[in-house]
Amino acid sequence: AEQAIGARENVTLSGRVPDVRPYVARSTVFIVPLRMGSGTRLKVLEAMAQGMPIVSTSIGCEGLDVVAGEHLLIADTPDEFAVATLRLLQDETLRHHLGQRARQFVVERYDWDHIVLHLEHVYQQVIELARHSKPETTMALRGGQV
The whole model's pTM is what? Predict the structure, then answer.
């Protein structure tokens, strides 16, 4: 199957590359056709950070608080996926809109400054809980045996 895909006109199989950003930047649409899987969706966030318009399955963007039609297009069947991809390839205005909204989404929610502030808030909550808890709870929070 890989040889058949690579033999097609306008299809290049790159294999492993040291940095995906130049490849993503040269692309028109970023597709995420995952039908199973788990873990973080860092590649999706990277593409969003580059302002790429994205077509993904629901599983491909699982765990991200994205809105279909606002940050990306979601399609779960092969026919829907093909239609959504062709739609983005043909509609420059939609590509631009989704790419801008995707970039804004990442900056607002996944920028390091935002993440650090959120993490500091969580740490403050843990500290406050520890101050007002029984000694055995404090030990458990510190990783000690109760």
Answer: 0.72
